[in-house]
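Lab meeting notes turned into a lecture example. A postdoc, R.K., suggested we walk through two folding results consecutively so the class can see how the record format repeats. The first protein's sequence and structure tokens come next.
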Amino acid sequence: MNTLAASEEANASLPHLIEKLLQQQGLSYQLRPSRHAGPAAQQVQASLLCDSLGTVLALFPKDHLLDLKNISVLLGRELEPVRAVQLQRILAKHQLNQLPGLPVLFSSPCVFEQSLLEHPTLWLDSGLQGWSLEIDQQAARTLVAKASAARFSIRLDSLPSLPADPAQDSQDLTRAVTNFTALRMRQRLEETIEIPPMPITAQKVMKLRVQPEASIDDLADVVETDPSLAAQVVSWASSPFYAAPGKIRSVEDAIGRVLGFDLVINLAVGLSLGKTFSLPKDAPEGNTNYREQAIYTAAVIEGLAKAMPRAKRPELGLNYLAGLLHNFGYLVLAFIFPPYFKTICRHQEANPHVSVELIDQHLLGVSRDQIGSWLMRFWDMPTEVATAIRYQHDGDYQGPDSVYANLVFLALALLRQEGIGGGPVVDIPDALLKRLELTDEDARQVIHKVLDARDALKVLVSSYQHD
């Protein structure tokens, strides 16, 4: 153990209640920083579930996904995750800031994935954020002595990976829709689901994008045909985030003096598409609001791109658009699969350690990234944006237009490390930073600059939400 780790452990102490309960059971343990925990197969994920009869504690390895249908069938109960507000109330009562994997803490039944007892050592969340309990197999058996062993979770490495060819996305989505609707005849997705057309304003702006002679006046004329969009563009330029001198009096002013032609082209498209689908009424608790995350991601990507060597920078406006639309598949998913969407949300809440695209794959056979990317291609959006959406969770992607996908991955990873977004915190591959010609320090400076501007960004979020 290094000196720093030893010093940390010397200064850390378990919540009094947890320590007392472990002593009563005669359990020996070591308190370790969670970052030093062993393989995911030996880390225990706890999920507190409930129905009208009460709560159930489920324990399973962190390289598995808790399948709510499996455990509900197993126990003969319709179980869902305890909602965030209720869970926080339970934890606060015990002065905890994290759900510990300790059956002794709860009067409710406990069920555990039996593969956990195959390992000589386990690491459990301790109830103290950032700290884990390391216990041996004997202590683990004592811990779950009154619990029920079963098989109810799914190995993450058994879930299908993202297909290499984007052309397969339409087939996967059609298959998912066919299964979902129980159609007897296979049909093209466009014939099965009434996908809304691209908004007229977005279509007009996209036409300007490919016209070399297009001017600020041309763009302003298009934006002003949509009063809501015009107000948003002016609000964007007026935001403290851009710190423009003087008052922004018109769309032309916003374009020419503050935001620039390319950014407004892509901003207008992103804002227009954002109104195509309504935000779902149900959403995974604990995740950042859809539009807030879109704005933060776009801001971080803009900063990261500007930090790259000038010769390596991708098109800045398209980067910004990729950030605004990176989670667009979330909206389309809720639109195409409304009943399933609730199930997906509950699985996200029960599996905060699992990436959302894996949950989608398990439940639907297609991910929101594939769906969002497919729609971008269906609408003839720039391939760079479709690629960024499709490969945003693949830190190793090096195919065509990889710089856009890599920047979205990096932005999401940096934001997640700061508690913004949803899903697990992910490591940032050194090779990805090298491909972008950025250092870890470059990335940290960008994320800190964005977080320092939170108040200014809230103005943008507000204008995006009130269209």
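The second example is placed directly after the first for contrast:
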Amino acid sequence: MASKPNLIKRIWLVFILGTISATGPLSIDLYLPALPEMTKNLQTQASLVQLSLSACLLGLAVGQLISGPLSDKYGRKKPLMLGFLIFGMVSLLIAASHSVYFLIALRFIQGLAGASGQVLSRAIASDLFSGPLLTKFYAMLSAVNGIFPVISPIIGGYIIKYVEWQGVFILLAIIGFLVTIAIWMGVGETLPLANRITGSPVNSIIEMLKLLKDSKFVKLVLVSGFIYGGLFSYISASSFVFQNYFHMNVANFGFLYAMNGIGIAIGSAVPGLLANRISEISQIRFVLGSTLITAIGLIMSWFFVNNLPIVIFLIFLTVFQFGMLFTLTTAVIMNLSLKNSGGISALLGLAQNAIGGIMSPIVGVMGSQTYLPMALSITICIGISFLLFMTVNHHRSQSER
């Protein structure tokens, strides 16, 4: 394992890795306020512009399966720098685009490149830390990362207020280039040659796929994936629930959404404070149980109370616990093996994006006139996670590294 950085370097590492792991909200939430203007400017249908969102999400999912295994062979730094350099260049091309179909294609490539930040930030942390130290680092990383979904739509809306939609992608290009320079100058290579996968790049992919033979790994990845499914159930339904069902205005909903985002960030930081006293396994077991109880309470509130303040409280408590579970499950999964951290991180990210993406439209199909479908979806996802987690043998969790 690479030598552990001192306090100052660790703070810098948390900041830079927190930023590069936020390529999802930076690529998606930042340009959401620009969608209506883009539709008008490109003289196209709203559904086609929205397809650019799906293309980026698909790129973010597929890109992890590329950058993760490659980093296990070539190290973390080069794939990360290349990914953000391409991210910046493609962002400039998007700003110059006059065709919605060209936009969709470029957004897919932008997602492919940006995926390197999500997958390799986890892998770099796993190279440097293990056990409770890894949990503490992921807690800090998740707290920094959690800020971006809150501020991205605000920044995007502010940009659109003063400049055209191309300004959003120019900002993304600047971020891509600055992050590339920051990685080049301020992040050392963390994967020693002795821990890299030898042979052709195909070997890295084969080694990643071998992980799917480990039932413990697969179960834990699915646990994390269904937790993300619960989160996306909330995200996809929240605007309909609060604005349509509870008749909340846009400003108040935006404030509430931001507060819940902060709740996730705070929750993400809590496991780091408990890491030396309570094992990650015990924390996950308890928080999964308490989250399931909270989600069932949300269902019961629809039948017996149906009160806005109670719903707001229960949802905040739910997403707060989601934040804790994100940190804990990531730490446990990334602690499983010293080698293949890039491949482990890639499959973890794929499961999270895939299950989250599947649950979003399912909630819509179940209905958007009440919050019951959202509550049911969250409960089902957490219930599956809880049942899967209880079937995992955790006795070897720390010794496997």
